[in-house]
Structures are given as structure tokens and as C-alpha cells.
User: Fold these one by one.
Assistant:
Number 1:
Amino acid sequence: MLDVAEIQTFEHDVLVIGAGGAGLRAAIECSARGLSTGLMCKSLLGKAHTVMAEGGVAAALGNVDGRDNWKVHFRDTMRGGKFLNQWRMAELHARESPERVRELEEWGAVFDRTRDGLISQRNFGGHRYPRLAHVGDRTGLEIIRTLQDHAIHKGFGVYMECTALQVLLDGSRVAGVLGYWRESGRFVLFRARAVILATGGGGRAWRITSNSWEYSGDGYAMAYEAGADLMDMEFTQFHPTGMVWPPSVRGILVTEGVRGDGGILLNSVRKRFMFDYIPERFAPETAATEEEANRWLAGDKSARRPPELLTRDVVARAITREVNEGRGSPHGGVFLDIASRVPAGMIKKKLPSMYHQFKELAEVDITREPMEVGPTLHYFMGGVRVDPDSQMSTVPGLFAAGEAAAGMHGANRLGGNSLSDLLVFGRLSGIGAVQYVKDLGAVPRVHEDQVRAAVRGATDILNRESGTNPYVTHEQLQELMG
Ligand SMILES: Cc1cc2nc3c(=O)[nH]c(=O)nc-3n(C[C@H](O)[C@H](O)[C@H](O)COP(=O)(O)OP(=O)(O)OC[C@H]3O[C@@H](n4cnc5c(N)ncnc54)[C@H](O)[C@@H]3O)c2cc1C
């Protein structure tokens, strides 16, 4: 029988699983408030999904258009989410995002600037005013760099290439986590009074996705198995613009910043088709003609926004319809054209990653020719049901933040609202966990039989003679989801 005492063991007040924006921000908060904190991630620090974020972080700073404020941001978020959002989360998010962005700047983040030296903000789908603070099209990289630099001085334990397998319970309360080191395959036990799941989403359940291998829904599974409620799992987001060619890069994201900065969508007969797909509820604020959309782009505040900046669900459906009705591009997408709209130098300055991505992966020069794009699975709105203020799940001591948690975005997330979500709710989950630990009476006990069962569950598959190959199951799942 396995001797649990021989498993390498660490002990913390709080264990944060996941080192993306949500996990780092949560760990910073727990540590700053005096708790012993551990942060584990299944790949290297800095390799989380957050680093891939391109377009920007949404916050009603009002730097580019003074009419913006948190109430308009709240309204846009609720409307984008079809009013199925957890309204209190949407309120907290809209109110607190500007402070979190300014805090990042204090910690050393260098955002692009307006002519007056303020943090610049760009347009994105569904946002009434220019709202996305950005660093070219590499915003996530700057956010992760800043959070990591700041975190290093907080003195918490970091466990890299360490995969969490199961949340351990004492009765109904959290007592720790069992994981394993990816390099050696050896098990590792964390005793913890509270656990924060910041494990991101599950996009790898689809074949065509902008998500990396890490997005396998581990947090949802661990929460569910620990008895926590999940909600809105049917709400997944297709980003309208992923690469469609060559096949090896199908699904890789083409940031919404391309449309925010003036890019337009065209079908096979070079018609700007989005004017045909304006939903009634968005009609009062969407340009009805090219002439008006062009005036808006030139800065005319009386003009309405181009239809390419409708919410992601609307644009993704429109593209799918164009393709299904035979008006798609040669490789099954549509054309995204910025070359004929924005000077080459400006494209390279504002969208450097997109320029290199297409040049290197598809041999397309986006300053001269249009891109081919189509929908790609991008984001999970659903996830662990949490209390909006503390981010605690329905299991005492188990918290969730970022893409692992549900509620904030309703049925459809607005671009840029994830990075701000990570900062706002990463922090709030940290505060929630600290409060929970302080109020906790007896220290929860890790039960050896549970650890043994978890080890058995992880190793059984290696010891069996027959049964389904998990890689085949994954393939079948991707086929089914597509
Ligand atoms: C290409 C791309 C561009 C994007 N652009 C934007 C944008 O411009 N603006 C915006 O707001 N949003 C954007 N998003 C969405 C946003 O980046 C993500 O939703 C967000 O970064 C998720 O952050 P997170 O902290 O919840 O998770 P992540 O950053 O993905 O971190 C998850 C962490 O959990 C760890 N982990 C997972 N499972 C386990 C396990 N079992 N054990 C241990 N560790 C585990 C991973 O190793 C990782 O460290 C973009 C997404 C993509 C893919």
C-alpha cells in the first residue's frame, strides 16, 4: 500500500493553481496580506495564456473619449452578455477596472500613450467608446511581465511544471491538492486551508481554436469533482477572426485590434457584407453606410461605429453564413482588409505581431494584401459558480478567478474584458481567501485514503491492458464539438 508520508509535501495557507493574470494577481494579494502562499502552474512561469493576449485591457479611463465612464462599460458588458451576466460581477468589474490598470502602471507596465501622455485606448467590438488600454498588439506580455516582476518581491513559493490533479477535502472543506511534477512524474502533496483555481478555460476540446495545449479545462473538472457548482457551460465564444490558412495554423488568433484600427471584412465578391447583418438592438449606434463608417474612423464623433465592431457572436455568425452560402474566400473564410485602409507604417507600428504572424506563417504581407480569416473557438464564459464579491465557490475554501470562474460575461464576452476580469477578480479572490483563512477554526486534515484514491485514479490508466486510448477520445471529442 502507498505510504502517503513518502510523498513530497508542502504546506501553505493558500495554494493558487495557475500562473496567468488571475493566478498571479490573486497570489500577490494573499502574500501582501501576510498569508503563506504557494503558486503552481503546469508549464513554466510566464507561459500562461494571458501572455498571448493581444488587443488590450478594457477599462473606462475615458482618456480618448471623455464621455466614457464605468456605467457605460457596465451597460456594454451586460448587453454584450445578453443580460445573462451575474450583474454584481459586471458592476464590480466596470467600477474597479480603471484602478487595476492604473495600479499596473504604478508597478511598471508601459502602455501606449495618447498625444497628451495619457494611457491610449483603442476601439473594440461592443464597447461604446475607445476603451482598451494596450501595448501595440502584445498587451498580455506586458501584463504578465509586470505582474511577475511585482510578484517576485512578495516571497511566495512557486511550483513550476507541476500539474494539479485533485482538490482534497476534509468533510466539505478544502484541505489541499494532489499534483505531480511533469518532469519526473512523481506525486506532490500540498496541504492548504484555501485553494484558488486560476486554471483558465478548456478550448482544446475543439480542433479549431486560438487556445494553447494548456487549456484543457482542468479547473472545471477539479471543481466539479470536489462538489462545486459549474454554470453556463454551454456559453463558449467563437472569435470571428482566426487564421484559416495554411492548415497547420488554422485557428490562431487575428486580434480584434485589426478591426478596431480600421480593418474591414469582405466576401468573395469583395462586398463589405457586415452592413447586411446589423441586429435591430445595435442599429441605433451602428453606421448604416460606408460613408458614415469612414467618417467615424476619421474621428467624427457624430458618426456611428462600423458594423465590423459589432459583438463577436454577431460577426462570427455573419462570417459563417457568408461561407456557408458560397461567398467565402478560397480557404473557407472571408477577407479581412486593413492594407487598403491604413498606411503600411502605421500597421507595422500598431499591429507588429499580426504583421509578423502573417508574414512568417502564411507568407502574406498584411500591409499590401488582405488576410483570410474565419471563426475560431476562443473563450469559455461558463465555469465555476462563485460568490461575486469573494469569488468563493459552493465548496468552502475553494475559490475561482479569471476564465476558470463564470458569471461575469453572461452569454458572450466583450473583447478586452478578460484581462480586466483577471485583475479585478484575481485581487478579489485573494482578499476572499485571506478572509476565509482568518475566519477558519480548526486546520483541515488531509485524509490519507483520499490521497491514495487520487493516486490510483491517476495511475490506473497506465496499468491496464485494454480500454480506449485517451488520445482517440480527445480526437473524437474535438470532432463532435466542431
Ligand atoms: C491568442 C489570444 C489572445 C487574447 N487576447 C485578449 C485580449 O486582447 N484581451 C482580453 O481581455 N483577453 C484576451 N484573450 C483572453 C485572455 O487572454 C484569457 O482569457 C486570459 O488570459 C485567461 O487568464 P487566466 O489567468 O484565467 O488563465 P491563463 O492565463 O491561461 O493561465 C492558466 C494557468 O493555469 C495553469 N494550469 C492549468 N491547468 C493546470 C493544472 N491542472 N495544474 C497546474 N496548473 C494549471 C496554466 O499552466 C497557466 O499557468 C486572448 C486569448 C488568446 C488565446
Number 2:
Amino acid sequence: MRILDRIIPIIGAASGQSANQLGCEKAPALIESLLRAGSKSSQEKSADWSRFMWQETITCTTSLRQLAALPAVADFCLQLATFTQKLATQYPQLLVMGGDHAVAMGTWSGIVQAYAPRGPLGLIWVDAHLDSHTPDDTESGNIHGMPLASLLGQGDVLLTQILSPKPKFKPQHVVVIGARSYEPVEVERLQSLGVRVYWMRDIERLGIAAIFTEAVEYLTATTVGIGMSIDLDAFDPHDVPAVSAPEPHGIFLGSFLAATNVLKSLVALEITEFNPTLPGSEQTAQAVLQLMNRLL
Ligand SMILES: [Mn+2]
């Protein structure tokens, strides 16, 4: 095995402006410091943390919020996309550590561009929310409610045309897992496009392992690789508390971790919405390390 095949580069995406409250911009520095300390306190005793290599942290610097921040968020996402595109051509796997979930528009625009000569990618979007608003139908104005619509080509051109004018994913190449809090306009958008959604009630009925298996089978049939974008609010707030927009009755972290063996060699992983300024930050940081180690 070549050394580059073993190393997993990490990009920090320090963005907090697009969430309902600030704080997520502090997550990359915290996780980086835990990794530099060798993660001795991690519950993942057998983990080889040396395979992770922190490359760079990109910061979204605007002091504006909501839609006023959109041009700055788009600039930041373009910068992030340029990095992820480069790394995805050099390494078989990479990790983006957010940041609020708006960073997804940068992460996946770059990775999809890198894989374009090989073929389309599939995306598993793990989230309590659907993130499928556009600037025209958002009630809050928070851009972290828009990344999935943007990646599917809907919304402001500054967000939908990062690196390329084309939609980043075809609707049939996207699967949402864990949704339980949304507006009707988002459900209508995803349904009319034909995006498959596994609701929280489906997870309660079938179990997360069965859903992973089905999702992987569905996406593998028509794509050349699968990526995963995790919004930590998908998990039950008892397990993963320090998130910007917690929603009760989520996925149990233990069940999720136990089922990750179904997800073989993701092309990339993104972990978002960790807000270290909120209570339960230490427990949430541990969850991030566990997810990194099991999914990559
Ligand atoms: Mn989200």
C-alpha cells in the first residue's frame, strides 16, 4: 500500500455565520488540538490517529449573518472547494471538519469536480433537517438550511455554481438519513426532484444497519463512489449534545457506529454543526473522533 493511500488529509472549515447561532467556527481548532495531543483521552483505544494529517483550516471571516452573508459564504465555499478538489485527486479519502453545514456546498463542489472524469458520485446526507431551502423560501435566512438544495442546483447562483455551472448531484444519487424536522416546501422540493429520504421513523422501524445497506446498494448501482455529509444534529441530543439546532429523538450514536462496517471506503466524510461553545462539548468531541475513526 502506498503511503498516500494510508494518509487521510483533513481540512478544517471554520464557518459559523450560516448557523442559527455562532460557535461552529471553533470546532476545527478543537478537533485539531485533540488530534495533535494524540487523542489519548479517546474512547477509541485501538485507533491509529497518525493516519490523519491536518492540512489546513480555512476561515469564513465575514461578520454579516443570514442572507447578507451569502456572497462571503459563497467565496469561502469556493476556496474550500478548490482545496477539496485538489486533495480528492491526490488521496482516496479525505475529511472535512466543519463548521456549520453551509460548508457542504464547498466540500462537495470540489470533490464532485475531482471525480468528474471518472463518473458521478453518490451522497449520503445524515441530518435531522432537510437543508433544502432556497433564499426565496427560507424563513430564518440561515444559509445552513440551504446546502442540499444548492448542491442539487436550486437556489442562488453564487451557491449553485461553485467551480461549475452544473448541479453537483443528480437527485437519484442522493440519500437523506435521519430527517425529522423540516418545512413543507423542503419536502415538496426533494419529492418533486426524486431524492430518497429515510425519515427517523424508518430508522426506528428498520434499524440504521438495514438502511445503510439499502442506501449503499441503491447508490452503488449508478455511481462511482459514495461520500457522506454528517450534520451532528442527526444524532440523539443525549448522545451528541453540542450542536446548533438539536432535535429530540435522533439516531443513537452507538447503533450508528455499530453499523458503519456496511459503509466501505467512503470517498470523503464531512462532519458539521459541532458547536463547542455549548454544553456537552467534550462528549460531542468524543463522538466526532469516533465517527472519524469508524467511517474512514
Ligand atoms: Mn444540516
